[in-house]
């Protein structure tokens, strides 16, 4: 499921929980902590349920939710403030014959029992702010007590990191890809990025280049990417890629991109072209070594790419590598 869709689902879970909490309901807040094998949802997936079984969100393709809700209704789930349960493979997994994860999968779920008090209200407000804002936050939950605290995430990486006694859950806006300029590489980048779940924005002020471009679900703006970045500075989950070979467009984009919080900034070109661009950006754009160091020139992984599709693949692979903290 695309990350923009996942973000919308996460917001739906949070907003439902806030409504139910305001009505005085006790809540069970469930987060996928880890998956192994072919588990159907990735870490960080959310589900919230009330005691009467009404719920929003998903932990799997459906069988895990059904089993969990049935156990909760039957009183088979512990009433502790926090617990971790596992489905699938492993001696510690719940014995649930009706739950079948594909290919020997395993799913571990953090279950928090939230009373209708002000603490739960603050947790839900923090979730909403993180999903709507531009900063990647980290919720740290102590697994034996349920104590939690929020902090700004210091690095990108997986949505959930498990330590001995603590789960660190990263919460933030959907990953966004800003494509500066239309080119054959842009077309493939937009396709790859959308299939990977990115919110895609494409900017190019040149009318003629749009004639044969197929945007899919991308947001298309006929303006300079640098102007867009002035109005909408890149947040911490933004990648900015310049893909035209036109220095007038690419250079302006780089100058503006380094002023924001983008986790990835790259521009297409050979090593020699990149050296010339770096000198221009230093001389005319006023960028120092630190700013230049944030720009990947040439863009993407060194795969020996030749065709537009290969260059786009190398670009998106590098974006994913950095986003995952590799």
Percent of residues in β-strands = 15-25%
Name of the CATH class of the largest domain: Alpha Beta
Estimate percent helicity: 25-40%
| The CATH homology group name of the largest domain | NAD(P)-binding Rossmann-like Domain
Write structural notes for this entry:
It comes from Halomonas cerina. It is built from nine helices and 15 strands. The protein is α/β, with parallel strands linked by helices and 326 residues long. The protein folds into two domains: 121 residues, no CATH class; 148 residues, NAD(P)-binding Rossmann-like Domain (Rossmann fold), CATH 3.40.50. The chain has a six-stranded parallel sheet, sandwiched between helices. Helix 6 links the parallel strand 13 and strand 14. Helix 5 runs parallel beside helix 6. The model has no long low-confidence stretch (mean pLDDT 87).
């Amino acid at each position: 499921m695309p990350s923009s869709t996942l973000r919308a689902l996460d917001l739906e879970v949070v907003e439902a929980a806030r409504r139910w909490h305001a009505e005085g309901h006790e809540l069970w807040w469930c987060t996928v902590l880890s998956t192994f094998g072919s588990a159907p949802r990735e870490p960080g997936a959310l589900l919230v349920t009330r005691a009467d079984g009404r719920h929003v969100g998903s932990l799997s393709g459906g069988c895990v939710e059904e089993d969990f809700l049935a156990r909760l209704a039957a009183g088979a789930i512990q009433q502790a403030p926090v617990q971790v349960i596992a489905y699938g493979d492993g001696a510690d997994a719940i014995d649930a014959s009706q739950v079948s994860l594909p290919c020997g999968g395993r799913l571990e779920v953090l279950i928090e029992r939230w009373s209708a008090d002000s603490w739960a209200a603050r947790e839900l407000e923090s979730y909403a702010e993180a999903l709507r804002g531009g900063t990647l936050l980290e919720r740290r939950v102590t697994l034996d007590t349920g104590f939690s605290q929020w902090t700004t995430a210091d690095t990108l990486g997986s949505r959930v990191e498990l330590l001995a006694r603590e789960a660190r859950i990263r919460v933030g806006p959907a990953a966004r890809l800003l494509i500066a300029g239309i080119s054959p590489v842009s077309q493939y980048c937009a396709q790859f990025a959308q299939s990977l779940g990115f919110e895609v924005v494409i900017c190019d002020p040149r009318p003629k280049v749009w004639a044969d471009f197929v945007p899919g679900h991308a947001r298309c703006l006929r303006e300079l990417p640098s102007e867009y970045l002035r109005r909408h500075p890149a947040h911490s989950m933004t990648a900015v890629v310049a893909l035209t070979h036109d220095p007038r467009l690419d250079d302006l984009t780089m100058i503006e991109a380094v002023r924001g919080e983008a986790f990835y900034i790259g521009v297409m070109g050979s090593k020699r072209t990149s050296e010339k661009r770096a000198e221009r950006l230093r001389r005319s754009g006023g960028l120092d070594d630190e700013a230049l160091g944030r720009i990947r020139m040439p863009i993407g992984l060194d795969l020996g790419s030749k065709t537009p599709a290969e260059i786009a693949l190398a670009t998106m692979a590098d974006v994913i590598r950095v986003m995952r903290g590799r």
